[in-house]
Amino acid sequence: MSAEAVSAGSGRSVRAMAEAAKEASRGLAGLDEARRNAALEALALAVEGAGAELLAANLEDVRVEGGRLSAATLARLKLDEAKLAEMAEQVRSVVRLADPLGRGLDAIELDEGLDLTKVSVPLGVLAVIFEARPDAVTQIAALAIKSGNAVLLKAGKEVERTAEVLVRVLRETLVEQGLPADAVSLVVGRERVQELLGMHDLVDLVIPRGSKELVEYVQANTRIPVLGHAEGVCHIYVDESADEALALRVIEDAKVDYPAACNAVETVLVHRAIAAEFLPKLAERLRAKGVALHGDATVRQLLRGVEVEAVQDWHTEYGDLAVSLGVVKGVDEAMEHIHAHGSSHTESVIAEDAAVAERFLREVDAASVMHNASTRFADGFRYGFGAEVGISTSKLHARGPVGLEGLTTYKYVLRGTGQVVGDYRVSKETGEQARTFTHRVSKKQEAR
């Protein structure tokens, strides 16, 4: 491969890039864990070493594109020294994770000398379409390489300059480590998205990371399986048994820590028995942090004299310093509200009553459910996955923060000693079966 192809990776047609990624994925799948981990260590060092160039490219992205972006999107786009250090650490955290490949998931003896094993393997080629998230490049690349997958990255226009530098650095480092550069490639140009989504014969999974509109567009325009979530309308229910100080602290963190994140709380539901006492304290605490309040009729009545706008749509994902407040009769009404208006992303209950908490955790249908904890914990890094390629609200294949395990599938490996199917059929002449299956289940074991 030419130096130009290694450094850019985006000058070819989308099909050529996808074909090269498919070939690279087969090479990655055959590498042992030590080789993959060594490459990731080198990638982390390369990101640190390219800090000045990355910050300069990002500054140009912010200068050119920043004026048309919302405050929340701009916050995701901006890089600084701290975020660069975090990006490198996320790569290293993936190194420390157990190898997701070659694990024996199940084993069964079909007959003596005929053993079947279910083994974890890479998916193959991933296509990830993302907006305004430079750290998505390093997170996704690290998880892809560790799990033996190649990845085609499609960056939004607002982050293209930063992404181009990052991907060039990663590709050059992969070549230095003896790995295929096409394990990580960058697709540039909005007009190429549709072409990428048409690569169902080469791409095994597409992951959209961005706005609701982006996710819905991808879901409607591809035959490739899609992993992701369209919205992050997260709720916190404050029960009448809640510890007031705990509730205030958790809600503040869930809304204020990073309001642009998909796991930030958007709606707080309060039990009517404590609403008159609790809501003024919550309003004071949130307003002190610059949070705009929206409420139902009961909330606005209880917070007379406080600026509270009427809730226009309980489905709203603010992605900013704003929150919807509602009063409910109890946990049943809270769960009904969540199921009617939530996005199956992350839901939390604040309660000291163990029975209420357990009912909420058991009955609420969401990728993550929490008790006395901030919704902001719904994150691959915080869950111990090292990093994440995104959060899925699907119930098929992967759900919640998707890390290494979500980037693998499995295959069945059968080891025999010359058996044929005819050995296990009933003979038409004698009416007897020569051999019978034992179907003896083995303990889960590491694949050989």
- Estimate the strand proportion: 15-25%
- State the total count of DSSP E strands: 17
Quote the average pLDDT.
Answer: 92
**Oligomeric state of shown chains:** single chain
Please give the radius of gyration in angstroms: 25 Å
Briefly characterize the structure:
This protein is an alpha/beta fold and 448 residues long. The chain has helices spanning 3-7, 14-29, 33-49, 51-65, 71-77, 81-95, 134-146, 160-176, 193-197, 212-220, 244-256, 272-288, 297-302, 331-341, 354-363, and strands at 104-111, 114-122, 125-130, 150-155, 184-187, 205-209, 234-238, 265-271, 292-295, 308-310, 322-328, 346-350, 368-371, 390-392, 400-402, 408-415, 440-442. The chain is built from 15 helices and 17 strands.
Labels describing this entry:
Aldehyde Dehydrogenase, Chain A, domain 2; single chain; 39% helix; globular; 15 helices; Aldehyde Dehydrogenase, Chain A, domain 1; 7-stranded parallel sheet; alpha/beta; 448 residues
Could you explain the architecture of this structure?
This protein folds into 2 domains: 3-100 and 122-227, Aldehyde Dehydrogenase, Chain A, domain 1 (3-Layer(aba) Sandwich), CATH 3.40.605; 234-385, Aldehyde Dehydrogenase, Chain A, domain 2 (3-Layer(aba) Sandwich). It contains 15 helices and 17 strands. Helix content is 39%, strand content 20%. The strands form 4 sheets. Strands 10-9-11-8-7-12-13 form a 7-stranded parallel beta sheet, sandwiched between helices. A 4-stranded antiparallel beta sheet has the order 16-2-1-17, with no helix packed on it. The chain has a 4-stranded parallel beta sheet with strand order 5-4-3-6, with helices on both faces. Helix 3 packs antiparallel against helix 6 (81-95) and helix 6 (81-95) runs parallel beside helix 7 (134-146). It has helices at 3-7, 14-29, 33-49, 51-65, 71-77, 81-95, 134-146, 160-176, 193-197, 212-220, 244-256, 272-288, 297-302, 331-341, 354-363, and strands at 104-111, 114-122, 125-130, 150-155, 184-187, 205-209, 234-238, 265-271, 292-295, 308-310, 322-328, 346-350, 368-371, 390-392, 400-402, 408-415, 440-442. 47% of the residues are buried. The protein has 448 residues and is α/β, with parallel strands linked by helices. It is globular, with a radius of gyration of 25 Å.
